Amino acid sequence: MSSRIAVIGAGLAGLRCAELLCDAGFDAHVYERENRVGGRMATDSIDGFLVDHGFHVMQTAYPTSKRTFDFTQLGAKAFEPGAIVVQQRSSKPKFWRLADPFRRPFQGVASGLNRFASPFDLLRVARLRFSAGKGAIETVYDGGNDSTSAYLSKRGFSSSMVDRFFHPLFSGIFLEDELKTNERMFRFVFRMMSKGDMVLPRNGIQAAPESVAQRIGYGRIHLSSKVEVRDDNTLLINGKEHSFAAVVHAYTTSPAENDRHVWTLHFDAQHSPLGSNHILLNGDVKLKKQLIAHVAVPSDIQPSYAPEGRSLVTVTVVGSNADSLGFSTRDDVLSQVQTELASWFGEQSSEWRCLAVQHIRHALPEPLDDLGDTPSLGTDRFECGDHMMHGSAEGALLSAEHTAQAVIQSLRQ
Fold this sequence. Notes:
Blueprint lengths: L3 E5 L3 H12 L3 E5 L11 E4 L2 E4 L5 E2 L3 H6 L8 E2 L3 E8 L2 E8 L5 H8 L6 H15 L14 H7 L4 H16 L8 H13 L2 E3 L6 H10 L4 E2 L4 E5 L2 E4 L2 E4 L2 E4 L10 E10 L10 E3 L9 E5 L1 H4 L9 E8 H6 L5 H16 L1 H4 L2 E12 L17 E2 L9 H19 L2
Parallel strand pairs: 1-2, 1-14, 2-10, 7-16, 14-20
Antiparallel strand pairs: 3-4, 5-9, 6-9, 7-8, 11-12, 12-13, 15-18, 15-19, 16-17, 17-18
Helix pairs in contact: 1-8, 1-13, 5-7
């Protein structure tokens, strides 16, 4: 039997699946309709700035990421653990720096004294971190199946702590503004954030899938390919019929069912507006019905993201929040974002040049209803991608591993 396998889609899942099939001795080829690899993990170069499609970070604690990526080779550098939270107080903004007391104990003590949160909420955070971090990683999928919002309420967190901290952070991660995401996904992400670092590759987020593509070899990756599926083993590729021992579908066939979309705005600034390498959370995003969920300065972490003497400021607006507030056009979103930035940073933000306003539809898939520690394998075909588990690099890579193993077992029977 032929060992030739087709993988349709050169996103992270498709690339990793193809790599594992090649490692197992199969002749795997990847077919991609776009002219570059990476799928949603894409980076553009604009006037010397590295502009990712959406605000992306990599998590060093993801088990499959540690198996897949060499973070040193990628030149990855980390954000500071913790966050800065901003809220408007009378006529002036108030900034709180919240350090991780487990990894930054001295700064963590100062955070506990800055009166952002009550001692009871700080204790609950410590207890949450302890409970989420103990045991095997599979245990985070055990227990309840409520929404993130209900889970935090059951853990006793005050509405103030949820609205000012958890909401801007996790609405920007889950790309939905009601924290309706399954609590199992929350526990998983919280555990990963507690145990690892959020990092950026030196050459932008697209460098991550490109590193996998390089190991496969670009001779096996066929970009700008028009693919039609004839049957389980036959594809029409650029008008020519090809037969394969197996076909892997590394894409979702029903993106319209998912509406987790996001607006990401990138600005060229003369100076970084932040005084530390943290992400800035908008504590008023829910309380005052604002747009911005969080702000990051990637060039503070990776100077390669901006030309010398400039800074890249990246703003995240959750799409469902923009919808509910009636902001649906590029100009409307940009205008409101600039107003909110000016309320925090004053005149300096009026001088920032907008590099890009990205509206990314179907930015994340909906997690599986009954989320567990293994991805779905599909029913009538080989399929992989983060839509088979949950929207993260971990979901994509774990799905790729399980699908590759299923293909190998099927062909070796």
